[in-house]
Specification:
The chain is an alpha/beta fold. It has 11 helices and 11 strands. About 5% of the residues have low confidence. Belongs to the STXBP/unc-18/SEC1 family.
C-alpha cells in the first residue's frame, strides 16, 4: 500500500507554502555547497529531524540526489561506514545539550544556540566546522495542523528555565502573519503565552520602525489562541479510547508516521505468492490522504471493529454484484475504471484491520 504525506489540498489556508519554503531553504543550502566546487555531499540527519524532512520531501529522499547527495543517513552512536571519498559531510541537528562531536558542515534546525556553540568550543572543534542554520520551523503534518515539533519545550521551560523555545514560537507566528495577514484577535492564557504575545508585539514594532509592514495582506486568519501547557496538565495523562489515540499510545505516532512490522503492511498478493515480508519496521503515514483513516481516526475503539467489518462487506458486495449480473459493455467499462479505487480501498481497509488487531 502506498504511503503518502498529507496532500494539504483541503487546507483552509495555503499550508503548502511552508512545505515549499522548507524545501527551498534545504535545497539552497545543498546547492550552495556544490557551488563551492563540491559535487558530492553526504547528508547526516538528527533522528528528530528525519520525520519532519520526510513531510517536506513529498517525492521521497530520492530527490536529494538532484542536489548532490550521494549518502543519506541518520546520526547515531554507530553511524556506520563513512562517506565516499571526496564528499563534504553535512550534519543537521536539533540543538540540544548533549554530546556534539561532528566535523565538516554543521547546520542547526531551526536555529543556532549559544549553548551548543560553547560545547563545540570545549570539544576543540569549533574552528574545524562551517556552521549554519536550517530555519525549518512550522511544518504541515496535516491539512489542519502546523507543528514546530518542540518535544523538549516543556522540559526546557520548567526544568532548565530556558525560554528560547518561546522565541521560536513567536517567530513562527510572525511568519504566519507575514504570509496570511495580521491576525486581528489574539487571545492567550498563561505566563508563557504572554511572553510569546509580547515578543510578537516587539517584533512588529521593530519591523514598522524599519519601514516594513507585518502581515500587509488581507488577514485570512480571524483569531489566534495561545495556551500554556500548564493550563491543562491532565489531558495528556488520560487513557485514549479513539483509534488514533490508541495507535499513538501503543505504537507511537511521530510526525504523522507509525513504524510497524513489515508483515502488517504486506499485500495479499505477496501472501499468495508466499513472499516473506521484509524484516524490521517500516514507516506508514497516517493522515487525511487516506480517506478511511480520516473517517475512523476519531472513532471510539468499541465502534471501530464493527465499522471496518461493514466496510469489508461493502467492498465484497460490489465485486459480487458485478459478477452475478449480466453486464453490458458500458457497465463493464465503468466497473474496470472503478477497480483501482476498490483495490486502494481494500488495501487501506486491510491495513487498518491489521492495526486494530
Amino acid at each position: 500500500m502506498a504511503s503518502r504525506v498529507s496532500s494539504l489540498e483541503n487546507s483552509a489556508i495555503n499550508l503548502s507554502v511552508f512545505r515549499e519554503d522548507a524545501r527551498r531553504e534545504l535545497f539552497g543550502i545543498l546547492d550552495g555547497l556544490r557551488d563551492k566546487e563540491r559535487s558530492n555531499l553526504s547528508l547526516v540527519l538528527d533522528p528528530e529531524l528525519s520525520g519532519l524532512v520526510a513531510q517536506v520531501l513529498v517525492e521521497g529522499a530520492g530527490v536529494l540526489k538532484d542536489h548532490g547527495i550521494v549518502q543519506f543517513k541518520e546520526l547515531t552512536v554507530d553511524i556506520g561506514p563513512g562517506p565516499p571519498s571526496g564528499c563534504d559531510v553535512m550534519v543537521f541537528i536539533v540543538p540540544l545539550a548533549g554530546k556534539v562531536k561532528v566535523r565538516f558542515h554543521l547546520y542547526y534546525a531551526p536555529k543556532r544556540t549559544l549553548a551548543c556553540d560553547e560545547m563545540l568550543k570545549k570539544a576543540g572543534v569549533m574552528g574545524s566546522l562551517v556552521i549554519g542554520e536550517f530555519p525549518m520551523d512550522l511544518v504541515p503534518v496535516e491539512e489542519d495542523i502546523l507543528s514546530l515539533e518542540l518535544s523538549d519545550g516543556f522540559n526546557d521551560l520548567f526544568v532548565h528555565n530556558d525560554r528560547s523555545s518561546l522565541h521560536t514560537v513567536a517567530g513562527s507566528v510572525n511568519k504566519l502573519q507575514s504570509l496570511f495577514g495580521l491576525i486581528p484577535n489574539v487571545k492567550y492564557k498563561g505566563s508563557m503565552s504572554q511572553v510569546v504575545v509580547e515578543s510578537m508585539a516587539l517584533f512588529q514594532k521593530k519591523r514598522q520602525a524599519e519601514g516594513h509592514g507585518v502581515g500587509s495582506v488581507e488577514p485570512e486568519i480571524d483569531t489566534l489562541i495561545l495556551l500554556d501547557r500548564t493550563v491543562d496538565l491532565v489531558s495528556p495523562l488520560v487513557t485514549p479510547f479513539t483509534y488514533e489515540g490508541l495507535l499513538d499510545e501503543i505504537i507511537g505516532i511521530t510526525n504523522g508516521v507509525v513504524k510497524v512490522d513489515a508483515e502488517l503492511v504486506e499485500d495479499d498478493s505477496d501472501k499468495a505468492k508466499k513472499q516473506p515480508a521484509a524484516a524490521g519496521l517500516v514507516p506508514v503515514n497516517l493522515n487525511s490522504t487516506d480517506a478511511l483513516y480520516a473517517e475512523v481516526r476519531d472513532y471510539h475503539t468499541e465502534r471501530l471493529g464493527a465499522h471496518l467489518q461493514n466496510k469489508a462487506r461493502e467492498i465484497r458486495e460490489r465485486y459480487e454484484e458485478f459478477r452475478k449480473k449480466n453486464a453490458s459493455i458500458s457497465e463493464i467499462r465503468d466497473f474496470v475504471k472503478r477497480i483501482p479505487g476498490l483495490k486502494q480501498s481494500y488495501a487501506a481497509l486491510q491495513l487498518h484491520i491489521n492495526f486494530a488487531e
